[in-house]
Records
---
Amino acid sequence: MEDLLKCKRFVTSEWHRNQAENLLNFALKNDSDNALIYSILESRIALERYVFEMSVLVKGNKLTNENLKSADRRNGVFNLLKETMVDYIKHLTFSNIILVINNIPARINIPNLKRFKQLITELSNFCHLQFKPIETIYDPKKKWFIKGVSLVQETISILKSSNLEGAMEIESMENEVLDVYNKFLQSKIDIKAVRIQLKLMSPVLEIRKSMKV
């Protein structure tokens, strides 16, 4: 436990997720309510950080000061989630189409963002004052502890399956690809049209890529 408390902190969703998992393992091994609370806190931060990283990805590293101020307010992460949700799903869908066209077997799992919001709320409830300790930390049946463990485990599982690795960065897109992407984002074309257009331009992009090598 001492190592977990003394380790250097980082501000990535993955780091918070790993810290939550390590603290959870300690809580289970030692039947520790304290470690569970710390694990729950790290889980909530991991989810919030993921939403922020997701927003950065979709907006192409162009978050405005207003975006940052909004995210820093009470429940700001929910506002950021609402602003980003549709674009993020489309972004990952577009990235998966690119992977298929390029014959890359990997696929990006599109997370259930509605469940993200629910988990943030449920985890937050564990961080409040224990007004009825007989129903929480002093419950002989450990229902509170079991529920907390379940929430952290679900959070860790969702975040592990929601890896952003493989998602296309807007800055890396060729102009032709970016044009298709923007049309898809603006609902000017559907998934079928995206597939057709990207497939048609793929040979040209491959030739261009080989000439750059």
Note: Residues 2-169 form one domain.
---
Amino acid sequence: MSKQFTYRINKGSIDRKLENFDRIIGEDLQERLVNLASYMVQSSPVDTGAYVRSHSIRPRGSSSGRMRSASGRPSLKGNPGAQQSQRDEAYGALVGDVLKFLDQIVEKDGAVVINRSPHAQDVELNYSVFAKAQLRLRG
């Protein structure tokens, strides 16, 4: 006479655990991206505000994003209140990106941080905003 037993997988329980796991990953990712947004904004130079307001966070594979030109904009140097106002606006836009695209960022296994201002390369050469942010993420 043989003996046996059946082990039944509780798919509902596994699905609930996976959903909880996805939620935890999403929350952690959201927090990291919001912290990154804050760092990018605070470490960006502000002359006219065009550069700092051109930062975007999008799902991996995207090449779209905000683009502001400094052309025709007055310099805000010597006006810390106006500079902070530009930073605040940029931070709000980046947090909006994170909230809007979070599910897609998780689905595509990552995000791209992009700055499409016409002078982004020049600013990076002088201030290394992106290089410093990448180092901060790795650390």
Note: The beta strands are 55-59, 111-115.
---
Amino acid sequence: MASSALLAIIEVPHEKRVRCSADGCGHSVYKKVHLVRVDGHTQVYGSDCFAKLFGESVLGRSEPKYGGTNGRLLTPEEIAMLAMNTEHLVEEFEREHQEEIMRLEALRIAKTERHSCLQRIQATQTPLFAHPPTTTMQSSEAEAIARKRLAERFPGVNIDLAGFKGLLAMEISKIIRENAG
């Protein structure tokens, strides 16, 4: 068999079983039905005949092009396609396969764009409590001014208590920004 490919492994309900196309077989099959492209034509094989014909070959050990190895349960429409025109069913599998590839590529692009956008945003933002570069004198002057403002705003409150250190740091940052430039 010059050119062969395992296209899909499918499953149909017992009452909708199909005939195995292996020479001399003719059994009806419904679970683990193998759709195989052989010399340009799609053939239907049961799992036993598939194993006999392709067993240890590369094809026998290959994954199906469409779907997995568990056997995709066909919808009523797909069962009708299988019975009437197997090639049309394979074309439908190919269309679904291409749609999935496009969907995954769109997700990959969106993820890349989100990551790139996030990096641009992060590059332009400064951290919340970042101070511009200052000298010790500037920091100590700003702290003195901040303590004076907070003492006026909150008389009788000890600014050195744990709950107020963040408030003091924000006030120092505000003063440094006001006097920068």
Note: The helical segments are 47-54, 58-61, 76-84, 86-124, 136-153, 162-179.
